[in-house]
Amino acid sequence: MSGPYARIAGTGSYLPETVMTNHDLELLVETSDEWITQRTGIKKRHIAGPHESTSDLALAAARSALAAAGRAARELDLIVVATTTPDRVFPSTACLLQEKLDVHGCPAFDVQAVCTGFVYALGVANNFIRAGQSACALVVGAETLSRLIDWTDRSTCVLFGDGAGAVVLEAATEPGLYSTQLHADGSYANLLTVPYGVSQGYDRVRQGDAFIEMRGNEVFRVAVNTLGRIVDETLEHNGMSKEDVDWLVPHQANHRIIEATARRLGLPMERVVVTVDEHANTSAASIPLALDVAVRDGRIRRGELLLMEAFGGGFTWGSALVRY
Ligand code: UT7
User: Fold this and answer.
1) Does 169 lie in the same domain as 207?
2) Which residues are annotated as catalytic?
3) From the CB of 160, is ligand 1 less than 6 Å away?
4) How many domains are there within the chain?
5) How confident is the model at residue 109, as a pLDDT?
């Protein structure tokens, strides 16, 4: 493998101000802090304000990542936003973000792979950089999932939150990003879905009656097995071993799923970045949010090897192996 490679120049994130705790949810549905904590590890989640959109969250995370990278927005030559909750049907959230950043002309588009969206977006941006088509790319995961939640359905409303995370990728002579492994299997579409959209059931969308539906148990089982396999696939592809990994930065859906993947890697939980307790499941935003938290609190240091992995609706799943 020869250069150019993509390296993470800076990270950023943003969480909306309003916090909803498990105790707040006890007032809405028949649930308990104890049940939510035991089954998921979640204690609270952030909820976007009524006038806050996905591109607003993305903008705050992007500004913070650009500052950390020491880059100006005008230096960006690519913007990729991973989201399942775009501001509009079109233009893409990436185009709206581009305008908010006051930059013009560079390619900007969204990637929709639900909870695996950030890993997919990283893979796309990595290929742009590897091909010499980009030297400074913004990759964002941003979601306002609270807008897709049925607040009377206890089996889903306790699980999700809003937020955004971002990285600035730049071309470098050494990795950086070793590889992304990306997968999908649409035969599982109905296990985790909002089954309405523009060309199907748009009435439901217009009535505000289109919500996340999930067969949690079945998703859980496939997620644990699949994530175990992707860890092995990623290490094997790069000729590395479990001992080489310094940090697991997983998608934050459920503490029990994260623990199972860490066990598979033989990594103690001290080497796993866990934010699901504080943020809940923020879908495409969860990995860049977790990454930024651990970079800023000094846990993740330059030169360390990070394994990111995610699983989500589609099903989609994937990983990224990165020398930070
Ligand atoms: O990010 C994308 C991928 N998404 C995921 O990875 C989510 C994967 N799934 C999960 O994380 C778990 O399956 C859940 C956290 C969603 C559910 O945990 P579980 O241990 O699989 O519980 P369950 O669905 O088997 O439900 C057990 C019981 C049921 O009651 P019965 O039928 O046993 O009487 C549910 O009705 O818990 C009940 N229940 C609740 N009780 C209190 C379901 N939701 C709640 C709730 N509070 N919020």
Assistant:
1) no
2) 115, 251, 281
3) no
4) 2
5) 98
